[in-house]
């Protein structure tokens, strides 16, 4: 019975993430297909009707990727930086929209930043003898405290933003993937490191065979 349960659990570990990934991909595909301007994309007549939505989605993704690269290249120039400043100035005058704009912009900059300390996992002792995993954001406050994000488990989309004094932060040698795996699995997917065991071979059995 234990072997049967273990096989089922191993199968679920492999299949459930694939099912979730397929569900998310299907949901995103349906959202893209349902965009209003999709019907305005004219395609050659030799494309089969069942492939038209897929081709339209691929065209939109390619155009978006090219637009992203073009804007990124433009941002390396003075004109691009001036344009970004003008857009920021206009949006920051709108009370509600500026909050959403600045929050989303900061989130993208934080996620795509290439700094070494970005999202670096650390440990923080929140109670006596109890440590919790947090991630550096690469930001500091005006009084020198480091800004950390402590996600909840297993839902890492929620958590706490904390301003912590540097001496209270315990550095770790973990990778981001290792820390996220532990949090997403609610602590059940800790890295298992092998333990060396000294094994001494004895000839007692062979000696008994010779005696017989």
TrEMBL record:
<keyword id="KW-0812">Transmembrane</keyword>
<protein>
    <recommendedName>
        <fullName>DUF502 domain-containing protein</fullName>
    </recommendedName>
</protein>
<dbReference type="InterPro" id="IPR007462">
    <property type="entry name" value="COV1-like"/>
</dbReference>
<feature type="transmembrane region" description="Helical">
    <location>
        <begin position="50"/>
        <end position="74"/>
    </location>
</feature>
<keyword id="KW-0472">Membrane</keyword>
<keyword id="KW-1133">Transmembrane helix</keyword>
<feature type="transmembrane region" description="Helical">
    <location>
        <begin position="12"/>
        <end position="30"/>
    </location>
</feature>
<dbReference type="Pfam" id="PF04367">
    <property type="entry name" value="DUF502"/>
</dbReference>
């Amino acid at each position: 019975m234990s072997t049967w349960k273990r096989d089922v659990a191993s199968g679920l570990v492999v299949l459930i993430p694939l099912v979730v990934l397929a569900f998310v991909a299907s949901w995103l595909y349906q959202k893209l297909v349902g965009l209003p301007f999709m019907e305005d994309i004219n395609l050659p007549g030799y494309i089969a009707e069942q492939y038209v939505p897929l081709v339209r989605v691929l065209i939109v993704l390619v155009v978006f990727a090219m637009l992203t690269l073009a804007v990124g290249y433009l941002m390396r120039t003075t004109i691009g930086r001036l344009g970004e400043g003008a857009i920021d100035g206009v949006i920051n005058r709108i009370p509600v929209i500026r909050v959403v704009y600045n929050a989303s912009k900061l989130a993208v900059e934080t996620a795509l930043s290439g700094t070494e300390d970005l999202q670096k996992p650390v440990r923080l002792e929140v109670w006596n003898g109890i440590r919790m995993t947090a991630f550096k954001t690469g930001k500091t406050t005006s009084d020198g405290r480091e800004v950390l994000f402590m996600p909840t488990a297993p839902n890492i989309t929620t958590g706490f933003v904390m301003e912590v004094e540097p001496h209270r932060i315990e550095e770790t040698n973990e990778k981001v993937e290792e820390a996220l795996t532990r949090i997403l699995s609610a602590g059940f997917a800790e890295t298992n490191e092998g333990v060396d065991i000294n094994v001494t071979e004895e000839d007692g059995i062979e000696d008994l065979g010779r005696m017989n």
